[in-house]
Amino acid sequence: MALLIFLPAYGCNESNNDSRTNAGNLPDAKSSKTKVVTTFLPVHLFTKAVAGDVADVEILVNPGTDVHEYQATPDNVKAIATANILVKNGLGLEEFLEDTVKNAQNPKLVEIDASKGIKVINDIASVEETKHKDQDHKHEHTDGNPHVWLDPVFAKQQVINIRDGLIAADPGNKEAYQNNAAAYIQELENLNNEFQQSLNTTSNCTFITFHDAFPYIAKRYNLKQVAVVKIPEDQLSPADVQKAINAVKKYKVKTLFSEPGVDNKLLTSLSQDLKLTLYPLDSLENGETNPQYYFQAMKANLQNLAAGCK
Ligand SMILES: [Zn+2]
């Protein structure tokens, strides 16, 4: 493959800016930097934090697109074909990836699995099962629940995996990766402390979600998630509403959490009927591509968890 020919850098080394994150929008002049392709927002944020300005970091699943049912584009294949490194969340979340990587035919590609070594939750007991079981099974994550990035402690593990993977693939920039990762990890540790302090009086608080994204954060801080819907839906079905009502009867539910993109009018009236307050809780599958966005969104999550579980 002619991909590793050293092309002169045409002075395009301006620092990492967000216009470069779109995998379909490569700058015309080839950068001499290591090119890292990431799958979706959380691993993109972590990789950008570790890479700083020594590597170019792109994203395949643009924010606003659902990673759970994502279909790869020809631009995604091109991005992987010309990349040095690919960073994924793993745990079966990126179902589109295997075929896309195959189609890209890039034998030099180094893959980093950000979830390596993380102990996953397979238990789906707290999810309210639907009647249409086989429908759900189509989307079931065979490798366990993939939403590990929503626990700051596992996020730290992901940053460490990304750091070590980048160093192994690009040892020339080892020091930068180490320093950048150390700064971000410090922020993640501070965040974990904030969660522990704010949620130490809300033990066993049970909350309902409409996306099975929060079992790790619940487990870490002694809360209990009951997911009525596994993967976010554009609209709640009458069956989902019934499941929420059943869950409230079955558990001592303190609050309901919803994400942007879910039918909020229906949720609002449901929360009124159930006499439970509805708060937003962000799975970070969508949002801004600035690495600090993780902390911004997670601090908002903490406020809402604390308010809902008070
Ligand atoms: Zn999800």
Question: Explain this structure to me?
Answer:
The chain is α/β, with parallel strands linked by helices. It has helices spanning 41-51, 74-81, 97-104, 133-137, 152-169, 174-198, 215-220, 238-250, 264-274, 293-309, and strands at residues 34-38, 55-59, 85-88, 110-113, 206-209, 224-227, 253-258, 278-280. Strands 2-1-3-4 form a 4-stranded parallel beta sheet, covered by helices on one side. α7 links the parallel β5 and β6. α1 crosses α5 and α1 packs across α6 (174-198). The longest helix has 25 residues, at 174-198. It is globular, with a radius of gyration of 20 Å. It binds zinc ion. Zinc ion (ZN) binds at residues 68, 147, 211, 213, 283, 285.
Structural class: alpha/beta
Q: Measured on Cα atoms, how large is the radius of gyration?
A: 20 Å
Strand order of the largest sheet: 2-1-3-4
Q: How many individual helices? A: 10
Series of secondary-structure elements, N-terminal to C-terminal: EHEHEHEHHHEHEHEHEH
Largest sheet, in brief, is:
4 strands, parallel
The backbone outline, from C-alpha atoms, is globular
Runs with pLDDT <50, length 5+? 1-28, 130-141
Distance between the termini: 59 Å
Oligomer: single chain
Our estimate of the beta-strand percent is 5-15%
Helix content: 25-40%
How many β-strands, per DSSP? 8
The mean pLDDT is 87
Chemical compounds bound to the protein: zinc ion
Protein name: Zinc ABC transporter substrate-binding protein
GO molecular function: metal ion binding
Organism: Anabaena sphaerica FACHB-251
Family: Belongs to the bacterial solute-binding protein 9 family.
